[in-house]
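User: Is it possible to get a 3D structure for a protein together with its bound compound? The compound here is adenosine monophosphate. I've pasted both below.
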Amino acid sequence: MGWNGLYSSAFERVRSSIGGVGTVLLAYNTNIDAIKYLDREDLEARIERAGVKEVLPYSEELPKRIESIQQLLGSILWSIRRGKAAELFVESCSTRFYMKRWGWDELRMGGQVGIMANLLGGVYGVPVIAHVPQLSKLQAGLFKDGPIYVPKAESGKINLVHPRDFEADEENCIHYIYEFPRGFRVFEFEAPRENRFIGSADDYNPNVVVRQEFEEHFEEIAEKAELAIISGLQALTEENYRGPFETIRAHLEVLEERGIPAHLEFAFTPDETVRKEILGLLGKFWSVGLNEVELASIIEVMGEKAIAERLLAHDPVDPVAVTEAMIKLAEKTGVRRIHFHTYGYYLALTNYRGEFVRDALLFAALAAAAKAKLGDVGSIDDIVKAMDVPVNEKARGIEEALAKEYGMEGGIAEISGYQLSFVPTKIVAKPRSTVGIGDTISSSAFVGEFALR
Ligand code: AMP
Ligand code: GLC
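Assistant: Yes, that's possible. Here is the predicted structure of the complex:
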């Protein structure tokens, strides 16, 4: 069977079995994404007003956090020049106010937890319990209908309610997302790829502020779950990680005791100390999801600089370097599943075997293409609308390299006691938006795998 045949049969099987997946616990980051599609003239005028000479240095090297309008505009330029995503905490109130007045084109659900809650609960109908650090009216209104719950403590007991029925009036945690298409021009710069820069005007998610309900009643909450997905550790720093890590470690112990497989969505974590701490925690997870930049950054703190460099040297990413990096990571930490995704293909390394691992990746790739094509996936049947998106041509070379190196057939190979699964993805030429595709991929593949078991 060719890849198109494998795609449609994987989709049909996941669609008919996903209803059997139990409740998924999602923690910790949920926010509001205020999306602004950048306009060349507007951006150039803003940079000129702020001072080109003051802005440009930040497009060479990102600041650690944003403390001025010049840093904000320079960081946006940094992303455009490289076609790379970046996210920084916005410290200064005057810059937060500047972003607010600059405005947005769309408000959307944001944060890995929020996005996955809407996809799993609102689209796939899989029950989810979400951690939402601040439940403002605006935040609550962004949740889709469906089996999506937040825990509410009432007279010492935990009840699960839909976020809109939580009826709190807490703060808005807003992340300003500056999106640009491939070929977007500002002055002499041109974006090699579509992407975005994120400025978070949010004091809760970047610090992983854990709600009281989760601090005090975690065992009772975990009792209701069968799977867990953890995310949102990426913005922690050497200064503030200790407290949240204590809570997370305690939560992971509860999940481990109850035999609940947990997936870590590893977003780009600039702080090296935090990356090392995450590496130390990985063995407590069943699974981890990451892209090439994230894999290189974690392999680097393991002291494997040469592999890290190979991961970033080629486009598309060298799959043999990825496989070697995944094996090193699995051997060092004991994590059972590593799901790697990049522009054009995915790989999964598992310490268990079966075609269902590959098929869950295919389902995820179809969901990602639907998300890129439609912007928002309304129902599981929308996913099929991505079947006509062509399978990435460049992935043929990747598949050949894997066949030659590891004897891979039909996307599956056996290497040093692990199964390696590969799928070529479908690439949407002009995506509606790039935010949240990674979250769609990781959650669909993880949950899809348990649906197919
Ligand atoms: P992340 O790197 O975590 O933001 O996730 C982005 C992922 O989304 C990439 O690794 C690609 O696999 C996928 N992706 C990005 N752009 C597209 C597109 N236009 N069509 C399909 N998938 C895409
Ligand atoms: C990060 C950002 C959030 C965005 C998400 C998309 O969590 O903070 O604003 O929605 O990534 O993956």
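The chain has a mean pLDDT of 96. The longest strand covers residues 31-37.
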